[in-house]
């Protein structure tokens, strides 16, 4: 879980103007422009977790000291959202997320769109 305060994170966000949705078997596809900007290649490991007490998902390159869930990026840029996170957040197939970048380009934040 990311320890930064929600307020700090929000001040660092840049709206990518892109969205993604939760597909079959809890997968999302990170757009290629975002993967390129973060230098995330197929087969690499990313960490996915929550920011503090928020309902926002954060995805970043995996590092050995991360306590977040580790997932492998597919050839098409998709990753699986871990079951425990989909349960905690009440996510279901078809949920749409706005994609935000942190200003330093080291991770992305997914905010669920309220339909």
SSE blueprint and pairings:
Elements: H1 6-11, E1 13-21, E2 27-29, H2 32-38, E3 45-50, E4 57-61, E5 69-72, E6 78-80, H3 83-89, E7 96-102, E8 107-112
Antiparallel strand pairs: 1-7, 2-6, 3-4, 3-5, 4-8, 7-8
- Report on the biggest sheet: 6 strands, antiparallel
| Class computed from helices, strands and strand pairing | alpha+beta
User: Can you tell me the residue ranges where pLDDT is under 50 for at least 5 consecutive residues?
Assistant: 1-7
Looking at the structure, what is the overall shape?
Answer: globular
How would you write the strand order of the largest sheet?
Answer: 1-7-8-4-3-5
What does the average pLDDT come to? 86
Number of strands: 8
* Beta-strand content: 35-45%
| Count of separate DSSP helical elements | 3
In whole angstroms, the N-to-C terminal distance is: 26 Å
* Helix proportion range: 10-25%
Reading the helices and strands in chain order gives: HEEHEEEEHEE
Radius of gyration: 13 Å
Brief sketch in words of this structure:
The protein is of the alpha+beta class and 115 residues long. It has helices spanning 6-11, 32-38, 83-89, and strands spanning 13-21, 27-29, 45-50, 57-61, 69-72, 78-80, 96-102, 107-112. A hairpin with a 4-residue loop joins strand 7 (96-102) and strand 8.
Question: How would you characterize this protein structure?
Answer:
The chain has helices spanning 6-11, 32-38, 83-89; strands at residues 13-21, 27-29, 45-50, 57-61, 69-72, 78-80, 96-102, 107-112. The chain has a six-stranded antiparallel beta sheet. It has a two-stranded antiparallel sheet with strand order 2-6. It starts with 5 loop residues before the first helix and ends with a strand. The radius of gyration is 13 Å and the shape is globular. It contains three helices and eight strands. With 115 residues, it is of the alpha+beta class. The longest helix is centred in the first third of the chain and has 7 residues, at 32-38.
